[in-house]
Every structure is written in C-alpha cells, then in structure tokens.
C-alpha cells in the first residue's frame, strides 16, 4: 500500500487492518518505530485481537501477612500462584499492566509491570481514592476525596492539576477506585439513596452518569461499579432488598444513557453470599476479569464470576491461596483479609515511557 494512503487512514481503521495479521508479524512491527510500538500496545488495538491471541489475565494479591514489597499473582489459565517482588510497596491501584504504589502518605510510585521501569510522584492528598487511567503512550492518575475534590496527574506534563470540587449534596465514595468509561471516571455517591457521578478527564469537570438516574428497584442496599479497563463497558453490581438486607444481587450495564439489567445471582447463591457477608455490604468488592464481572466479599475466599456470553452466566471459583509460609494461626486473618487488595492486570502491557 502507498505510504501516503496508509498515513491518511483513521487510526481506528489502521488498528482493524493490523489486528488481522499473524501474531509473529504484529510483534515484528513493534520494533520498526515508536508510533507502531505505541499503536500495537494500545488497549483499543489489543481488544481487537482474536481470543486465542489475547494473553492471560492475572489476579494480583496483596495482604498484610506477606512483606509489603512481595505480591502474589494467580494465573487463571494455569491455576498457579507465582511470587512477585517489587522495589516499591503498598499497592493502591492498577490498570492494564501499570501498577501504582503508595510507599508513603505523600508519595506515589507508578511501575510498568513489563519493563519494571518506574517513576516517583508527589501525591497531593494522602486520604484520597486513586484511579489509574492508561493510554498508549501516557497515563493519568485521578485523585478524589469524599468531599469531591479532584486532582489529575498527567505523565506527559508531569504535573498535577486541581479542579473544582463536586458541588452535589452527596459524598463521593472513596472506598473503591473509580470505573473508567468513555472518557470519564465514575463513582458511587453516598449516603442512600445511592447515585453515580463521573469526572470527565478531558474537560476536567464533574458530570452526571445518566439522565435516567439509578435503576428503579425496590431498594438498593449496596452498589459497586465495574469498568472493563479500556473505557468501553460500564457495569453496576447491586444488592436489592429492604431494611438493609439484600434479597437479590443483580448486574446492570450502561447502554445509551440508561442502566439495563443483564443478570441476577441465583437465589441459593444469594443466600450463601448474604450469610458469609453477615449483611455487612461494606465488605463487598467487584472487578472486571476475562470478559465478565467478579463479585466477592472480604470475609469469603470465593469469587463469583458473571459472564454474560455464557449460557450458565454465574460460576464460583476458589483458587488455593498461597499460604505455604504462613502458620495455622495466620490462616484466619488471611481468609478475612485476602481480598482487600485484589488487582487485575491484563497481560497486554502498555509501553509507557517514564
């Protein structure tokens, strides 16, 4: 093809053409120039690859019974745990192969999992929630506090920018990282009734998640937002019930400005889930993994997986925890706290240059 024609093609079309090439050819292209290297490492391109070419996902586990610099990764394809050692400690958030540590209250360390290159960053707010937003050749970190104060770090300029605080009456829930979706990072607002607001990363302002509001249910007892990591899908996991007790667990997906229900947890699973959580829904967490939503509880070592494309949408998994070096007295604490710091790493790493 004439280079002039190729150069004038939209980047999205270039990605679609390149994604149809053999994997060996794709890998060889990465060494030709930095532009190709960035393009072929971008989340949008990697999502176009056939399933057999997609590398496996890993669950990255951190808990107090291991040294703060030692993490364990679980490969769901081989069902094995592996120990990983890092120079930084106290992992706070991750996205698409980039890890963000907070070794001190005022310092962040962003590390590229593939190259092990890292960068130290001054943190503006030690009590805030951090959300890592990667792109092909840069990354951003959104720092938010419960009162709606927002600061954004851009790796390209190496500076923090502070924006106007959220002006709504509700408070931003900082117990979990935000979910990135179509250029904005979304958070749940508290107290009940719950709501969802987003921070537009490009425009630097707070926006409403949807004009339609929250799903019209009898009562949402808890809500968690889950994004797919590349900004294309946003899902909500919620418990529905009354008097503070969840009688049903449902999954909704954001479609065309409104929430559409796409699944419900079977009743027997709901009963077990409620019993192990002791109806303390602050222990519930959710994350995206291998094309679906995972739901768990800090007091329960199992993880429920919801995959919309499968006939049997719900399944439960319980990978053997890496307890080789823990004595019997530590096991109870591990079971209680093992899920507090689960992070998802897509083994399709970004070539971020520090």
Automatic annotation (TrEMBL):
Organism for this UniProt entry: Acorus calamus
InterPro entries on file: F-box-like_dom_sf, F-box_dom, Gal_Oxase/kelch_b-propeller, Kelch-typ_b-propeller, KIB1-4_b-propeller, SCF_F-box_component
Coiled coil regions, renumbered to chain: none
Highest taxon listed in the record's lineage: Eukaryota
SMART domains per UniProt: FBOX (SM00256)
Lineage of the organism: Eukaryota, Viridiplantae, Streptophyta, Embryophyta, Tracheophyta
Domain (F-box) ranges: 3-49
Record-given protein name: F-box/kelch-repeat protein
């Amino acid at each position: 093809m004439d280079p002039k024609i190729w150069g004038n093609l939209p980047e999205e079309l270039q990605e679609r053409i390149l994604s149809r090439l053999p994997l060996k050819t794709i890998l060889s292209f990465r060494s030709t120039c930095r532009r190709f290297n960035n393009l072929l490492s971008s989340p949008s391109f990697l999502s176009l690859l056939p399933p057999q070419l997609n590398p496996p996902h890993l669950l990255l586990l951190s808990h107090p019974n291991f040294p703060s610099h030692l993490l364990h990764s679980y490969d769901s394809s081989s069902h094995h745990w592996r120990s990983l050692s890092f120079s930084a400690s106290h992992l706070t958030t991750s996205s698409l192969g980039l890890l963000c540590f907070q070794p001190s209250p005022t310092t962040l360390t962003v590390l590229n999992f593939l190259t092990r290159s890292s960068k130290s960053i001054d943190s503006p707010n030690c009590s805030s929630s951090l959300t890592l937003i990667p792109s092909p050749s840069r990354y951003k970190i959104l720092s938010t506090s419960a009162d709606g104060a927002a600061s954004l770090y851009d790796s390209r300029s190496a500076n923090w920018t502070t924006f106007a605080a959220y002006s709504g009456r509700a408070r931003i829930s900082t117990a979990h990282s935000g979910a990135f979706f179509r250029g904005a990072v979304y958070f749940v607002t508290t107290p009940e009734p719950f709501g969802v607001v987003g921070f537009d990363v490009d425009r630097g302002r707070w926006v409403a998640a949807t004009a339609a509001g929250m799903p019209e249910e009898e009562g949402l007892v808890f809500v968690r937002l889950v994004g797919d990591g590349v900004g294309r899908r946003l899902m909500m996991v919620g418990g529905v019930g009354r008097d503070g007790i969840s009688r049903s667990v449902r999954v909704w997906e954001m479609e065309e400005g409104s929430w559409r229900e796409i699944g419900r947890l079977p009743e027997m699973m709901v009963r077990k889930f409620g019993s192990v959580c002791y109806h303390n829904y602050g222990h519930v967490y959710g994350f995206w993994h291998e094309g679906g939503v995972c739901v768990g509880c800090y007091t329960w070592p199992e993880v429920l997986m919801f995959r919309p494309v499968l006939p049997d949408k719900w399944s439960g998994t319980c990978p053997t925890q890496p307890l080789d070096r823990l004595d019997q007295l530590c096991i109870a604490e591990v079971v209680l706290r093992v899920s507090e710091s689960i992070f998802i790493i897509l083994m399709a790493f970004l070539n971020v240059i520090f």
